[in-house]
Amino acid sequence: MILFGESLNVISRVIGKEFKEADPAKRNPVPIQEEVLRQKELGMDYIDINLGPAKKFGTELMPWVVNVVQEAVPGMPLLLDSSNIDAIEAGLKVCKPADQPHIINSIMARPERYEKMVPLAAQYDADFVALMWGPEGLPRDENERAALAVELIYFANEAGVANERIWVDGIVTPVNIQQQQLMSLMNFQMMLEEIAPGAKSTCGLSNISNGPPEHLRGILNQTYMVMLEKYGMKSVISDPLDKQLTAIAKGQRQDIVDLIYGMMDGNEPDIAGLDKELQDYAKTYKVIMGETLYSDSWLEI
């Protein structure tokens, strides 16, 4: 599993302070560079630079951040993440060659967005994340996701961007309010290879645990990542501090993967015979699948 480090974010207390500073002379690059070095050491494969809206001075800020990051981790591929299209282009202009193509994160499945942004991917030889957020918002099911994917990917192909340069994000939703959408996304993952051969996939993994208590977020993220990977997910936007998730993603916890894959294949384990750690993953799988009613105490039952 490829990991996109998510912590270089405008909502971060430390990093966000530098991103919100309007005067370039007052910005401190050190916290940013320390963070990206930490992410690299923790096993992240890409760095996601998330400026948020960046409406006021995004066209100046994005290239500054890109240069600061590239100075610290030369050759590491970046995701440029902002709703400000001009800021994205300003960042692409200063991106230096990396081990993998840089990525525009993301392009919504809305004509007013993709008609402007897909040509940037072609012009600057960048990959892009195709976000399945359409004119009516979140798709209702896997079929609506598929229709949006076909529309956006067809446009990209016509613009000269091959499927192999596209990372499809079907959108992860919180487990405690939109459980059925989690199943829909997995169904969509199974359809993706037929819809767009060669296209890759990604997701904002931590959305599944947005709402549950902090102590439950890690195991939700980890379990769902394994489930998505079985159906073809190639990458996730990941919390670099979740070392267990990184270990699972990098093939170091095959016992956890085998348990979850087995349950997905219909092999019900003797949960009482598992150790406590694996019991927790089995219980979490059942919650995600809707076999157990969601509550904040599912690990205690």
From TrEMBL:
InterPro entries: Dihydropteroate_synth-like_sf, Met_Synthase/Corrinoid, Pterin-binding_dom. Its EC number is 2.1.1.13. Residues 1-272 form the Pterin-binding domain. GO terms for molecular function: methionine synthase activity. GO terms for cellular component: cytosol. Pfam families: Pterin_bind (PF00809). GO terms for biological process: methylation; pteridine-containing compound metabolic process. The keyword Transcription regulation does not apply. It is an enzyme of class 2 (transferase). Keywords: Methyltransferase, Transferase. It comes from the Bacteria. Belongs to the vitamin-B12 dependent methionine synthase family. This is MetH: 5-methyltetrahydrofolate corrinoid/iron-sulfur protein methyltransferase. The lineage of its organism: Bacteria, Pseudomonadati, Thermodesulfobacteriota, Desulfobacteria, Desulfobacterales.
